[in-house]
Amino acid sequence: MTNETTENQINQQMNDTNIDNLLFSDLLPANETGYEATRSFLLKIVDILLDFIKESSDRSTKIVDFHQPNQLKQLFDFTIPENPKNIQQILNDCKQCLKYQVKTGHPHYFNQLSCGLDIVSMAGEWLTATANTNMFTYEIAPIFILMEHFVLEKMRNIIGFPNGDSILAPGGAISNLYAIIVARHQMFPEYKTKGLKALPQLVLFTSEHSHYSTKGAGATCGFGTDNVIEVPVDANGRMIPEELERLVKESIEKGHRPFFVNCTCGTTVLGAFDPINPLADICAKYNMWLHIDAAWGGGCLLSRKHRHRLAGIERAQSVTWNPHKLMGTLLQCSTVHFKRDGLLIECNQMCADYLFQQDKHYDVSYDTGDKVIQCGRHNDIFKLWLMWRSKGDTGYEKHIDHLFDMTHYLVKRLKEEKDKFHLIWPEPECVNVCFWYIPTRLRNNEKNREWEQELGRITPLLKARMMNEGTLMVGYQPLGDKPNFFRNIISSSGVKPKDVDFLISEMDRLGHDL
Amino acid sequence: MTNETTENQINQQMNDTNIDNLLFSDLLPANETGYEATRSFLLKIVDILLDFIKESSDRSTKIVDFHQPNQLKQLFDFTIPENPKNIQQILNDCKQCLKYQVKTGHPHYFNQLSCGLDIVSMAGEWLTATANTNMFTYEIAPIFILMEHFVLEKMRNIIGFPNGDSILAPGGAISNLYAIIVARHQMFPEYKTKGLKALPQLVLFTSEHSHYSTKGAGATCGFGTDNVIEVPVDANGRMIPEELERLVKESIEKGHRPFFVNCTCGTTVLGAFDPINPLADICAKYNMWLHIDAAWGGGCLLSRKHRHRLAGIERAQSVTWNPHKLMGTLLQCSTVHFKRDGLLIECNQMCADYLFQQDKHYDVSYDTGDKVIQCGRHNDIFKLWLMWRSKGDTGYEKHIDHLFDMTHYLVKRLKEEKDKFHLIWPEPECVNVCFWYIPTRLRNNEKNREWEQELGRITPLLKARMMNEGTLMVGYQPLGDKPNFFRNIISSSGVKPKDVDFLISEMDRLGHDL
């Protein structure tokens, strides 16, 4: 058999029909001669993904082809078969799956704190998948472990923690949990062996508008949610320092020990920034740990124009900052930073020398496994590093400024259309814009409690129309005494003024007769 | 301008030089006409990834080009620049990064519980990245949320939990933590609001060979590590039921409340399986929650030949099972299952109605955000679902059986080469094989304590030689009174008998003169 014949045979084998009939066992690694088949399969997958990317950026396509759960169960074959499905079916599964998936990168998707699809970050995540490693030792993830060192050090420098330590965690809630357990460890190290029953009743404080993860960690870590005190906020959703001090004093009078204050920079709904400096003063006075949950607002630190919102951040002991939010990194990418080095390892190490040997032939201080509560960790750094390399600091600053510029444009347009839209907080601090849509019949009504209730009833109805049409996605929720209202988020770099204009006209088109 | 001219211009623009000089801002989504550039960029990324995949399956290539941390810092530019790097540099970054990364999919990589690179699972992870969604609501992840329902239900059926509930978590340690907090919630629901100080001292039990995550959760959740009691194991590394009962009684005598037993199915080092049935009897007798940490051994449930190792698993209240280990799914994919439905939500919900609205236009029982401690979650289901579709149940059974067949072949070969290798536990229960390598000078020595100590000193030296040559990776650790020994893992479907033969000859080549 000549070489030519072999090659023809391979080419023959590689034509569409033949690839499609292959099974997983014809691919690498099960079949060691399966490289060409593997390559063809992956290129077909990439074609499917490229189609999805193209559609996600095409303003004339739907964001979602929405179906109720019971319908979707009929439309899509979720079952696991007894016998293997061939490559054709696997490719078809991928196509079908994307058909029903929400296009979170679509410029008309304003629904979550994480919107958009950064292509470089996505390429980074493809590479991460292919490298398929675990972030617990330098031995098996050398380049990525060092990358974490460099990027996290840079982030600490931006915060104003010249020394310190950091870790990437699976989401902001776990980052906040890290801050709480590290604070507890530094202040009451005996808890680690003896447990909380050996300590006075510890108490945490967080604003009533803060993310529920502080309360959640209060339950998980054994403090009890009764001991996570919610501090009242002002009319703009910011924690009131005087109220914090009053509640701290109350707690001390009960014989409890206030030890932790969570200061939110960028609340979930309003995007409010708690005032750091007055809270830091109170923490210093009462010997409490100041944590800043900047999961949402942290990205502002990259912009000279917007970083003033976090003035005083360097006074905190710890900071949560999620690049997967304002910075547009792919999900998930969450970081938590500590002013003092050594705390993470002191808090979390269980001295599992069967996993983290101390006699390796390299400097094992680079191994992170004993610093975390997770043991193994997904590689969440590469997609951030690559994206930041592609943008540089100046490109990231432009990205952040663009999101705020688009937000200001939206606020301006909503004010212009004030018969159709009621801005609830007219001067947003972040890219959250909260408003009611007003259908025709309610435009001339008195703006009283009953009117608000009616707008609150209309909100989910309009959302349902948006979902069923699939043309626009904006989230909604109630908050305090405000019934359901829309909270629009601009965190995708793909959003342009024309998308803001579309948002306004489309809501009116869908909702005017409600 | 004719259409033809435009197309030529685009083609011109797409040639290598031009793409390479582009910036991120020329791609989607910042540049809405950037689809062709985006496509070219991604195809180049895929070429780089395909090269890595090809090398990873080429037995003549190195697994790792190892450098000490300080050297690697010189060789690779980790810095974040002030200004954007162009596409050429981004592509080069990806290439360089993979050059220094360990090829965890290489058939001579036997280093971790997770080895291998399943191509279908990897394709699934590429799609997951492109879909870039968050698993907290049906609204934004409809297809993936339902996929979780189907796959987790199937896993519960395999375990023997016909009802119940499950969740995917970021790694086995967090899965075990879920089991502990859910157990605490069911048995002592008042902890949630009042905290642990309102309860008697709760005590947990786990074997001295178990993963350190139970002890870690003991600290995190406020019990204190003194209250996580290590139960002695027998000569094969299995928890001794009589010792458990003795320690439970001791604890009760102290006035403490034993409430949780962690039974490991597949220990980290030996791969031992604690005896489920006797432990379940003791749990029933003393009203304790039985959790099974089958993060490692869970995959055996897919094989009729090997599932007997977990006989009695359906008697547990909860089970951790990591598809990213024996099942070969890409990192991370960890699941935790509960026999009783409703517990996860009761334990973890914080009623954040500003996030999880109850008045949506679909059945919100599908939303998972309020069931978890993380709020947002990475999509870890698609890579598992797609892989399982491609293999079917029969293909997965073959996969598991193949890993055990290769392990038996390794054990047989080591026994044949008993002058060069000393099997420490000659009849492994899982795919962990633990042994010392014996260099020439020690082959005729008496096998006493001193001889073992010397072999233990040699182990890290041989490991260093493997890393520096880059031809083979096998992990090592001490355990109990056994000094450093190798623990070989076969969890990659790419491993063939010739790779086992290579392992043996290569260790001898590198180590005989030590």
Automatic annotation (TrEMBL), chains A, B:
Family designation: Belongs to the group II decarboxylase family.
Modified residues (N6-(pyridoxal phosphate)lysine): 325
Cofactor annotation: pyridoxal 5'-phosphate
GO BP annotations listed: gamma-aminobutyric acid biosynthetic process
Protein name stated in the entry: Glutamate decarboxylase
Subunit structure and binding partners: Homodimer.
Keyword Lyase in annotation: yes
Signal peptide range in chain numbering: none
Entry-linked PROSITE patterns: DDC_GAD_HDC_YDC
Organism: Tetranychus urticae (Two-spotted spider mite)
GO cellular component terms listed in the entry, alphabetical order: cytoplasm
Keyword Glycoprotein applies: no
Keywords: Decarboxylase, Lyase, Pyridoxal phosphate
InterPro entries per record: PyrdxlP-dep_de-COase, PyrdxlP-dep_Trfase, PyrdxlP-dep_Trfase_major, Pyridoxal-P_BS
Record GO terms (molecular function): glutamate decarboxylase activity; pyridoxal phosphate binding
